[in-house]
Amino acid sequence: MNLITGNDLKTGAVTWWTGDGWSTLIEDAVDAGDDAEAIATREEAARRVNVPYVVEAAPGPDGTPRPSHIKERVRALGPTVRPDLTLKPDDPQAIEQVI
Amino acid sequence: MYAYDRYDQAMVDARVAEFRDQCERRLAGKLTEDQFKPLRLMNGLYLQLHAYMLRVAIPYGTLNGGQMRMLATIAEKYDRGYGHFTTRQNIQYNWIKLEDAADILADLASVEMHAIQTSGNCIRNISSDHFAGAAADEVADPRPYAELLRQWSSFHPEFSYLPRKFKICVIASEQDRAAMRLHDIGIRIVGRDGELGAQFYVGGGMGRTPMIAPLIRDFVPLDQLVTYSEAALRVYNRYGRRDNKYKARIKILVHELGAEEYTRQVEEEFAHLLEQGVEPPLAELERIKGFFELPSPLRHSREGGNPAEGAVREESGPPDQVRGDGFESWARHNTHAHRNPDYVSAIVSLKPVGGIPGDATADQMRVLADLAEQYSFDELRVMHTQNVVLPHVAKDDLPALWQALSDAGMGTPNADLMGDIIACPGLDYCSLANARSIPIAQRISERFAANGKEAALGELKLKISGCINACGHHHAGHIGILGVDRKGTENYQLLLGGSEAEDTSLAKITGPGFDERGIVDAVETAADVYLREREDGERFLDTYRRIGMAPFKEALYA
């Protein structure tokens, strides 16, 4: 599956394409399929996302999209060395799932 | 330390106003990211893995309590309560919002700080010895010369668009505590027949093609320092490659031309420039020197000598006090000889067991600011090893200082030991990284704290980079670790035998890499080989150089 990710212009936060907008939660991300590049270009031109690009992913054990590369998985969660600064500070398994 | 004059302040204030306008136009959609990116990078603002990252310049690593307190305020007000001290003696914030960036720069400007030239293909922050002006073994304080070069290189029109970034280091002692020969230009201030001059080493660096800078000029009179620097840069700017960013650093030019031919061209340019009168007047250097004079109480020891003049005094060594707790160990490992025997320079460890190397919370920064004002004549230094120095501490104050540092989690007695690991931000924060560095540092730190081998190992410099760009100086580690991407999985290469000191050498890869757990075991295996093979007085590096790679490989890949 093809996910589209980028950053929020004002905050720099990592965001994911949800089909009709952008979310900081990868759980909200959808497969953009073959249209991914075109959607990314369109959304950047509309200033709804900063520097978007397409990443490969596959459904994880719970059905949530799981990027193929660890770099994107770290982006999706936050620094593995600071669980308190991740998007799931109360989930002790979250970091293990990234690695 | 140096204080801005009205020109410095006006330049920095003008840059803040300019960047505020650029940020506003970007946020309003009047600038595209492609148009804005070079502008934000000129002000140290990167877009990293999780957010914008701001790199703040700390010239030659020197700052005062008020500046450190402002760094704490920024961490708390605009970031997530901490900052990361880097191997370039700077500080980085990892969670910056674009809409706050100009306000942050304005706050920095209010304490004579900025983020100018902390990115881009320009002359970056000048680095120096973290004990500069305090060390017993230096011929002069190198910081006035570093400051002169900072002023020369700031907004230098000819060198604002070099083939690649450019790093200069200035030291003034035989002992190299700043990785001088691993810079684009390394300058050592030396004494010769009663006169001070500068040795120029050009073309060093780490990254994907590590090189040790060769000596190209043994003695440049200090009233020609800027002129010679300009000649060295001009030849590079003219002939450095711009077709391939991986071959664009000056080390490649010097290597491809050969040091002799590069030197010939620099000398030719130097002769030409001498006629142009580019050197600032000596009065300016003298003005700068005035900012770096030792505080009055430091100029005289109790014995009545004047350590600021004449020959270097015998090393002052660790303090006389001996106590039955951790103080003795801290004082032995974390103090350095001061030119005044009544004082020492104290190393504040930002490497607690299992901690993140170089990270400090806002509260810890405030403690450092307070302690600098109370015990170190309002001075602090950031070390390239990602620790902090209080350069002028009276020996009598050391127990109280150690207690305060320990209470704040900064009293770990591990300077230059296994736990004093350099680690780049790695894949936890950096968009260039291939593997995580910090967790490896944490696991090694914990392993050697648990197995009790750290003290037995003695001086052992371990450095970890999460990619080939080598921000974690892995090439120069007695033990180095390089994180690589192997088919989407983190893998770690082990290197042995590097040094960034005066005996500079580049580490060599042992063989196939290891996974996250395996690399921690591998480091312990290498340490055990050293403990088994070492002879009296040998450091890890000495043993490696004597016995070579073979015994280590045999143990690692048995």
UniProtKB/TrEMBL annotation, chain A:
Domain of life: Bacteria
InterPro entries xref list: DUF2849
Short name of one Pfam family: DUF2849
Chain segments carrying region Disordered: 75-99
Annotated protein name in UniProt: DUF2849 domain-containing protein
UniProtKB/TrEMBL annotation, chain B:
Positions of the UniProt region annotated as Disordered: 296-327
InterPro entries membership: NIR_SIR_4Fe-4S, NiRdtase/SiRdtase_haem-b_fer, Nit/Sulf_reduc_fer-like_dom_sf, NO2/SO3_Rdtase_4Fe4S_dom, NO2/SO3_Rdtase_4Fe4S_sf
Keywords of the record: 4Fe-4S, Heme, Iron, Iron-sulfur, Metal-binding, Oxidoreductase
Domain Nitrite/Sulfite reductase ferredoxin-like: from-to ranges: 52-110, 356-406
Nitrite/sulphite reductase 4Fe-4S domain span: 119-272, 418-556
Compositionally biased region (Basic and acidic residues): 311-326
Keyword Iron: yes
Name under which the protein is recorded: Nitrite/sulfite reductase
UniProt source species: Alteriqipengyuania abyssalis
Organism placement in taxonomy: Bacteria, Pseudomonadati, Pseudomonadota, Alphaproteobacteria, Sphingomonadales
